[in-house]
Amino acid sequence: MTIVSRQARRIAARAVALTAMLAPALAQDVTTIRVLNWQPGGPEYWTQLVAAFEKANPDVKVELETVPFDRYPSVQGPYIATKSGPDVMENNAGLELFDRRSAYVQLPEDVLAAASDLITYSGGCLNYDTTQPCYGLPFGYQGNVMYYNKAVLTEAGLDAANPPKTWDEMDAACTAVKAIGKTCLAHGMTGVFPAYWNFPEVARNFLTEDDMRAIMAGKLPWTDPKMVSILEAMASIGTTRGWINSSSPSISMLPDGADIFQSGNAAFASTIIADAVNWAAFGAALGDENVGAMRWPVLVADAPLAHSFSGTESSVFGVTPWSTKQEAAFKFVKFVAGVENANLLASVAGGISLNKNVDPNALPKSQALAQIQEIIKTPTLHVGVLLSGQEADALARGWQEVTLGTITVADWTAQMQTALEESPSKAQ
Amino acid sequence: MSLASVSETVPDEVAPGSNPLLRTIVKWLVSFVLVVVAVVALYPLVFTVLNSLKTRTGYAQNPLGLPVDISFENYVETFVRMDVPRLLLNSIITTGGGLLLSTVAALFIAYAVTKLRIKGGNLIFLFIIAMLVIPSQVVIYPLYETILDLGLGGTYQGLIFSYAAFGLPISTYMLAAFFRAIPDELIEAARIDGAGELRILFQMMLPISTPAIAALSILNFVWMWNDLLLPLVIMGGSDKTTLMVGVALLSGQYDVSIPLISAGLIVALLPVMIVYLLFQRQILSGALAGAVK
Amino acid sequence: MTQIAQSSSSGLSRRKRRMRPELILGIALVVPGIALAIVFKLVPLVRAFILSLYQTRGFEEPKFAWFANYVSMFKDPVFATSFKNAALVFVTLPVWIFLPLVLALLIFQRSPGWKAFRAIYFLPYMIAPIVVGIMFRQILAPDGPLNAFLIFIGLAPLAIEWLNGATSALFSLTSVALWSFFGLGVLTYLSGLSTVPDEVIEAARLDGAGFWRLLIEIVTPLLKPVIGYWTVLCTSSMLIWMFPLIYALTRGGPGSATMLPEYLVFTTTFEFLNRGKGAAIGMALFVFAAIVSAFVVRRMYAEGKASK
Q: Which is the most buried residue in B182, B263, B279, C46, by most CB within 10 A?
């Protein structure tokens, strides 16, 4: 029994090997590159992206290796450790990319030239500095805004055309919204996402870009008064100010928190501008006419960055040093940053492209999207992506606990400082 | 859970022969407890099926109730997003391979240790079952490095070997315990008749131990089929990955649709359910007797 | 070995005659299993230990650092929390062992529809843990079906935010894991009970033995091997069973209320990219699992080793 099956397997293995050998012989001069990715923008967009690339580059075939985002490190990690695997890899921009730069080759001049059409690409370059080596090119823009449900604001007796601009106005709005029995700011804290995305929106009230660079370098301790102020403000959202749903510490933002907003039971939700759970998804659920997008309210009116947008490249694509097909791989990286992909991203995925030449007609018509386009015009660094893995984790867990009242802000601060000291990527 | 406390109301009055009314009441109480547990056991599945028939907006607006308009779009989407036949084939190959390999390896060891009594057999047995204390999460990283070193990354063999290795301790234990209960005289008699050891193993021991093999097959089948960590890491996102990884992929980085995932879960569950329904009698009645001797 | 020496003399002489081919066969039979265990479990474990002695910084070249990772591990309060939580999970072991036994006995008494109950109870076990996690995320949600039901039957005070408190979250997770696996226990016990002669139970009933007496005095001693087997399975697998649930439900939170060692290894290795420290925590978990499972493995060894 076993012998037969073993033989069968051997024969099958040989058949597979044979076809594998024949395939390239039949289709001559075609290089197949493997691209590790998590499909930002959804599968439909990726099918079209690969088709468009292969059409433009008939000598290259793309084989996607798609891994769920939250499991991505467990697949990518061993590839990097064993110096083997895909030819092209996706990576979050910023600190995470710098941390893994041993797994990416420095982009050559001609590839980097493709970046000249991009609004920003510094997240692909060491220390957010385009004069330093760059390891990957981005294509989409990402960051957080507050979406609001105009119907709920109106129902609560608020002016839907003038959503809150300051934290005090937000306090008042929340009181009114809660009075009609609805959630003010739909929120979920499980996992690192919510902390990582909301932190910059609070931090901009206290930090300068120099401070942010100091955070990246691990030179600004969490015990610094500015940092403590940020944590205190974040804590107050769930405690003294009571903006959020009480279930927040134990539900996830995506989809649970977003679903509270989509169900029409909340006035506000703080989520991302592109990919999903964005203006398009909310418009589909609540009606485009009911969805607005605004910058997070301002806490410190005269803070220099309070009126900016914390934006980051959604992700970058780079070429691995172990790849034997780097020429073909670079073609793919260039294509991803190019205008053809920008139009696909806008029209198919509803994403916000970084390419300046994106066709305005490719953009869907949505008022919330128009508001977002305004908001992102004054960009600054995204301090969330400058946190180490340890810091982001401690931020998320601490926020849960401080909201539940099991620890104080002082405890949280101490935990953040420990996390910073434990972060290998920020070691001095 | 409250179950234990409910069943406490069943107690000593069960004295038979006493008041028949009391007996009836107790009988009803027992049935009631069993029904409550059954509802608890079934409800989550029903809930998932219901959710899979909702649209995304429909779910957000009404997560608990019955679907307003039954929609099969999630199922369509599941089949569009993942190559179900291919993933199914991959799952069958890897689970089947892992199952076969671990059973055969366990069968060999159990026989060598309990019936051949090879020198140091007990030490070998101890070594194998001691492997039980190495959880996959602890060694997943070096395990994958080892698999890559062997050139088995992204291959069926890599996953099959890993499944077999992780299924081995409990399989060996169950078979050894089962074999031990088979009288040595039977084997001695066969040996006197001139039967070779392999013939004894395959033509005598194998048929006798069907219940034990069935039991450990169910145990191993369920975890291998349902496992996410090993296939995800070993197969990465290659086209040789399993159905469970495919389902995990239905949620994007920021895009988690409970109705869509529910549909994917039902699709992944269906083959298991079919196996269960087809072999229900064998699974339920005889199979786990293997654990019992 | 003593077992061999003690076996019957006729067997011994025959064995002597067949020694060589038997030896070769014996080696051939144990090699595949040993190879699997060594290559795919022992070697990775040894590599994990070696890695735990290295300071890893992202994916840069690791540097040998003796026991620096262990020092950092013991200083980490989350590490202690995770093992405290693991111990708390093990405290529920009696429930895992006896709840299925009680249910099996109730079914075994041939209550009406017992076949259906038997089939239904086994169903949850077939459902992938990651699926179970996602299902229960919805069910345990603050305004999920469980709370809706509790409020409906007038138990509103019990309708708590199940995953929103330190103790309730760990308790809820353990309950979900129990939901997932109790059916396997029921079935295991049922097959054990089917070997108990009806007369024994009938005699006990005629004796006027109540349910609990039947359970404690008659069934439990008779089912000792089955209970042992089920205990082995639960003890060795409980933490492994919890992992996907933590992943889908709480990510170890709120705070680190549901952080278990296995999940900590996972986050340290893959989220913090600190492979060295992850491996160190993994070694600690290995030692913990080895201690907890020592009696289990001893028992398995006693049951399965060459007899007499």
A: B263
Q: How far is C250 from chain B (nearest CA, A)?
A: 16
**B267: helix, coil or strand?**
helix
Closest residue in chain B to residue A10, using alpha carbons only: B157
Average pLDDT, chain B: 83
Name chain C contacts of B126, Cβ cutoff 8 Å: 297, 301, 305
Question: Which amino acid is present at B137?
Answer: Q
Sign of the C-alpha dihedral, residues B161, B167, B173, B179?
Answer: negative
Subunits next to C (3 or more Cβ pairs <8 Å) are A, B
Residues in contact with C80: Cβ distance below 8 Å, sequence separation at least 6, in sequence order: none
Residue C180 CA to residue A389 CA, distance in Å, equals 32
- Compute φ and ψ for A190, nearest 5 degrees: -70, 135
Phi, psi of C291 (to 5 degrees): -65, -50
Cα separation values, A254 from A152, B256, C259, Å: 21, 6, 21
Phi, psi angles (nearest 5°) of residue A185 = -110, 110
Contact C68, C75 (CB under 8 A): no
Please say whether the beta carbons of C183 and C124 come within 8 A: yes
C-beta of residue A390 within 8 angstroms of C-beta of residue A420: yes
Is A323's pLDDT higher than 70?
yes
Give B-chain residues touching A254 at CB under 8 angstroms: 254-256
Q: Select the residue of B40, B42, B105 nearest C32 (Cβ to Cβ).
A: B105
The yes-or-no verdict on residue A327 having pLDDT over 90 is yes
Q: Testing the interface with C: which of B117, B125, B149, B234 to mutate, by most C Cβ within 10 A?
A: B117
Query: Is the predicted pLDDT of residue A305 greater than 90, yes or no?
Result: yes
In this complex, which of A9, A263, A271 lies closest to B60 when CB atoms are compared? A263
Q: Which two tokens stand for residue A228?
A: 């403590």
pLDDT tens for chain C, 308 residues: list them. 334 444 444 444 455 555 577 778 888 999 999 999 999 999 999 999 999 999 887 667 788 989 999 999 998 899 999 999 999 999 999 999 999 999 998 888 767 788 888 889 988 998 888 778 888 888 888 878 898 889 989 888 888 888 888 789 999 999 999 999 999 999 888 888 877 777 777 777 666 667 777 778 878 888 887 888 888 788 878 888 888 889 888 889 899 999 999 999 988 888 887 889 999 999 999 998 888 778 777 777 777 676 54
Can you state the angle between helices A389-404 and A193-203, rounded to 10 degrees? Answer: 90
Chain A partners (3+ C-beta pairs within 8 A): B, C
Binary contact (A259, B145; C-beta < 8 A): no
Query: Do residues A183 and A245 touch, judged by C-beta distance below 8 A?
Result: yes
Rounded to whole angstroms, the Cα distance separating A9 from A237 reads 60
Facing residue for B113 by CB, picked from C22, C109, C306: C306
User: What pairs with residue C268 in β-bridges?
Assistant: none
CB proximity list for A169: less than 8 A, separation 6 or greater: A297
- Does the beta carbon of C140 lie under 8 angstroms from any beta carbon of chain B? no
Q: Are A39 and A72 in contact (CB under 8 A)?
A: no
Among residues A418, A426, A82, the alpha carbon closest in space to that of A222 is found at A418
C-contacting residues in B 193-222 (Cβ below 8 Å): 197-198, 219, 222
Sign of CA dihedral C153, C155, C156, C162: negative
Q: In the complex, which subunits touch B with 3 or more CB pairs below 8 angstroms?
A: A, C
Looking at CA atoms only, how far is residue C274 from chain B in angstroms? Answer: 12
CB burial of A395-419 (b: ≥16 within 10 Å; e: otherwise) equals bbbbbbbbbbeebebeebbbbbbbb
Contact A397 C165 (CB under 8 A): no
> Which letter does DSSP use for residue A182 in this model?
-
